[in-house]
């Protein structure tokens, strides 16, 4: 994604994080790991000022894109119609049990049949 970010430099962007936070900011810089240096950071939903400048780690970013400023507002989502974003981290309940069954089936397939 990093090479595509050069088109976003010095423009307002929207960033969604793995925690489900959605922020608007001005992209000041980035690196090959998609770490973003942003300024004038505001919460997309509430419009609250978060920071004047901020470094966002690439592994915490789900997606980012240009902010559509046709309405002239960074916080077009203010109001009850903006749903809370769910956590984007993958969680599989009882994952160890699933892997136990997979391992057992592979062991069964690998052992020669005694017929």
TrEMBL record:
<dbReference type="GO" id="GO:0000398">
    <property type="term" value="P:mRNA splicing, via spliceosome"/>
</dbReference>
<dbReference type="InterPro" id="IPR001163">
    <property type="entry name" value="Sm_dom_euk/arc"/>
</dbReference>
<keyword id="KW-0747">Spliceosome</keyword>
<keyword id="KW-0687">Ribonucleoprotein</keyword>
<protein>
    <recommendedName>
        <fullName>LSM2-LSM8 complex subunit LSM8</fullName>
    </recommendedName>
</protein>
<keyword id="KW-0507">mRNA processing</keyword>
<dbReference type="GO" id="GO:0046540">
    <property type="term" value="C:U4/U6 x U5 tri-snRNP complex"/>
</dbReference>
<feature type="domain" description="Sm">
    <location>
        <begin position="3"/>
        <end position="66"/>
    </location>
</feature>
<dbReference type="InterPro" id="IPR010920">
    <property type="entry name" value="LSM_dom_sf"/>
</dbReference>
<dbReference type="GO" id="GO:0003723">
    <property type="term" value="F:RNA binding"/>
</dbReference>
<comment type="subunit">
    <text>LSm subunits form a heteromer with a doughnut shape.</text>
</comment>
<dbReference type="Pfam" id="PF01423">
    <property type="entry name" value="LSM"/>
</dbReference>
<keyword id="KW-0508">mRNA splicing</keyword>
<dbReference type="GO" id="GO:0005681">
    <property type="term" value="C:spliceosomal complex"/>
</dbReference>
<dbReference type="GO" id="GO:0005688">
    <property type="term" value="C:U6 snRNP"/>
</dbReference>
<dbReference type="InterPro" id="IPR034103">
    <property type="entry name" value="Lsm8"/>
</dbReference>
<keyword id="KW-0539">Nucleus</keyword>
<comment type="similarity">
    <text>Belongs to the snRNP Sm proteins family.</text>
</comment>
<comment type="function">
    <text>Plays role in pre-mRNA splicing as component of the U4/U6-U5 tri-snRNP complex that is involved in spliceosome assembly, and as component of the precatalytic spliceosome (spliceosome B complex). The heptameric LSM2-8 complex binds specifically to the 3'-terminal U-tract of U6 snRNA.</text>
</comment>
<keyword id="KW-0694">RNA-binding</keyword>
